[in-house]
Amino acid sequence: MDLQNPKKRSDCSGLPKGWQREEVIRKGGLSAGKIDIYYISPDGQKLRSKPELVRYFKEAVDLSAFDFRTGKFNGSLVKKAKKHKGLAYDYSRALRNESLVPPIRQTASIFKQPVTVHKTQKNSVVKLDLKHGPQEKPKQVFWEKRLERLTACDINGNSFDLLGLPQNINSVGPNLTDATVLQSVATALHVGAQPIMGQTGNASSLDSNPGVFLNPSQPLIQAMMVADEDLIKQEERVMAARRRLEEALRSYGI
Q1: What's the rounded Cα separation, in Å, for the pair 22 and 9?
Q2: 176, 145 Cβ separation under 8 angstroms
Q3: How far apart are CA 195 and CA 217, in angstroms?
Q4: Where are the alpha helices (DSSP H) in the chain?
Q5: How far is CA 131 from CA 20, 104, 108, 120, in A?
Q6: How far apart are the first and last CA of the chain?
């Protein structure tokens, strides 16, 4: 091949019948004299790289040992494929699938403040390190006050009588009703896994600036201790309620 005739086309024995291999010499530029290899399909389509050939043939022809430069099958490529047996290769990208790692975008914080990390893709290669410990969703202070004017009622729309607070339970916070405090205690018993102790801060401090000293995991009551007498009285109330329930069920024949 010479520069007077920069193109040379011949039949390709490594591909099915009708395929041709074309060599083209670059005429100008820094890469002048370099030879580019193309493959022409029987229908006239020109393919410029091995990934294009793989996409064209799909699974009809195994090109794992095909040498794109020479147009022949190379035995050394077959040996390399055996060495990597068990690993998935994507020749259309010329990359190994297992090595594809999504890019990680990191922004340095000049204030050194904790951030919450959200993973959008599972990847065993990327390891996230939360240096500030587990991040919990913040809780709104006095959120129970939103339920103040809501009460349960029967099928006729009549509101049930509200429960009263024991004498040894005192509320903490501005303008709290007994219903709001009961909702706070019920929520702490249902959601929280720790014992109910109440607010341990000083009563005068809680009244002057409760937003600073309130513990959101505890109900809106002052710290209290449950004595043995209180437990005995509560057991008596429960037994009395059960007896009344049994009498009501008998009266209905249940």
Answers
A1: 4
A2: yes
A3: 10
A4: 50-57, 75-83, 178-191, 203-208, 210-213, 228-251
A5: 61, 18, 14, 20
A6: 105
Q: Answer yes or no: pTM beyond 0.70.
A: no
d(CA 186, CA 220): 11
Q: Which two tokens stand for residue 74?
A: 């190379």
Structure tokens at 119: 């993973």
In angstroms, the CA 12 to CA 72 distance is 8
User: For 32-88, what is each residue's pLDDT tens digit?
Assistant: 888 889 999 999 899 899 889 888 888 888 888 888 888 888 766 655 555 555 444
Q: Which amino acid is at 27?
A: K
Place of tokens 């339920």: 147
How many CA within 13 A on the CB side of residue 146? 4
Q: What is the CATH code for 7-99?
A: 3.30.890.10
Judge whether 167 and 203 are in contact, CB under 8 Å: no
